Amino acid sequence: MQLGTRWTAREQPPKAVPEALHAQIAAVEATLNPDGLSAPAPRWTLTFLEGRPVAELDTGVIVSQEASGEVVVRYDDDAEFA
């Protein structure tokens, strides 16, 4: 696994984040608590697994691109913040 980069949710994704992931990342961020009063915004971590991008939010939501090119959103049941 190769580490890519980190950024805060609701900020423009860095250039290293493939455009294919942007729409699903934005969709996930639209579901986050927008008031900002309860906690700081979670952060995304971009990695590459077998050459494919994987963006994981601190909350356990994962946006990844499959070998077929399809972008999928799933939840990591083992996330610390579940």
Explain the overall architecture:
By secondary structure, this protein is α+β, with helices and mostly antiparallel strands. The chain is built from one helix and five strands, in the order βαββββ. It has a five-stranded antiparallel β-sheet with strand order 1-2-3-4-5, covered by helices on one side. The chain is globular. It starts with a strand and ends in a 7-residue tail after the last strand. The mean pLDDT is 88. This is Fe-S oxidoreductase.
Structure annotation, total helices: 1
Structural class, by secondary structure, is alpha+beta
**Order of strands across the main sheet:** 1-2-3-4-5
Radius of gyration, Cα only, in angstroms?
12 Å
The whole-number mean of residue pLDDT values reads 88
Mind describing the biggest β-sheet?
Answer: 5 strands, antiparallel
Could you give the distance between the termini? Answer: 23 Å
Level of helix content? 10-25%
Order of helices and strands: EHEEEE
What's the count of strands?
5
- Low-confidence runs of at least 5 consecutive residues: none
Described by the principal axes of the CA atoms, the overall outline is: globular
Beta fraction? 35-45%
Protein name: Fe-S oxidoreductase
